[in-house]
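User:
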Amino acid sequence: MTMLNLRAMKRIYSLLLLLFISSLSLPSAASAFWVWTPETNKWINPKYSVKETPAEQLQVGVDFYEAGQYKESIQEFKKLIKHYSRSRQAPDAQYYIGLCLEEQGNIYASFKAYQLVIDKYPFSEHSAQIVKKQYDLGVELLDGQKGKSKFKQALLGDEYGVVDIFKTVIKNAPYGELASQAQYKIGLYLLEKKLYQEARDEFEKVLNDYPDSQWTKAAKYQIAMTDAQRSTRAQYDQKVTQSAVAEFEDFLEIFPDAELSEDAKLQIYELREKEAENNFLIAKFYEKQKNYKAAKTYYQTIVNDYAKTRWAAPSLKKILKMNQKEE
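Assistant: Predicted structure:
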């Protein structure tokens, strides 16, 4: 062996020794990522490994869940679903993912996770529980968005996530006890968003789809409220105001002893005030145009049909004044 070859061999040995020493100085956590298993004759990463049975894998996730380690719990449940998708523990794992997300405060994400149980495992024993949980999540999201900024609403869930959740509750259990409540909540949410026609349509569905429900009374009242909200201040076209009055009167006729009856009477009074004001403004318009006959007709309508409003007395004075001019 030449001197040149000896020098080359020494360099190789020195490099190998250096690599060996360096490997000993690495943190122990690094070597733990991959472990040789004689059973499988493979290198495996414990982070991604799965237990031998779905029951064992489920228990790992449950242990993390009960310890409040929800992120780790979700990872373990996802492993189960990936490796044992057809096992009887798979729907349990998906259900627990929903529970974890709910505990983390991810309302809309937990709703979607629960829905996966129904979509992928329609015969799961969790179905009834999930419908109730989804309804409660919808109520929580609805309450949470009241008075919240758009930024906070985005954290809670999609702006129309409330509607999505309640519609899903209805789809999952159309004849269940929560269906009519969910339908009513959709209308309530849209009413709060000032989407009056859309809200009215949803309240109508309560009456049409669930006529025997205890929520029909409240829906009937809210239909009148949507019309009342839609009616603007003393405009010439008061058809919506008249419709609201008719709806409240209809409500009183059907539910005379309801708790909302006094509120309905107050709403009727305020709406009739608005109608009277509208007629008064029209009368003044004709009076300025010197069309006294038309003006007098509107003033007289107020005196005859809206005698209990604050516009009756000034209308009567206007009529008397015009009568004096005619003499």
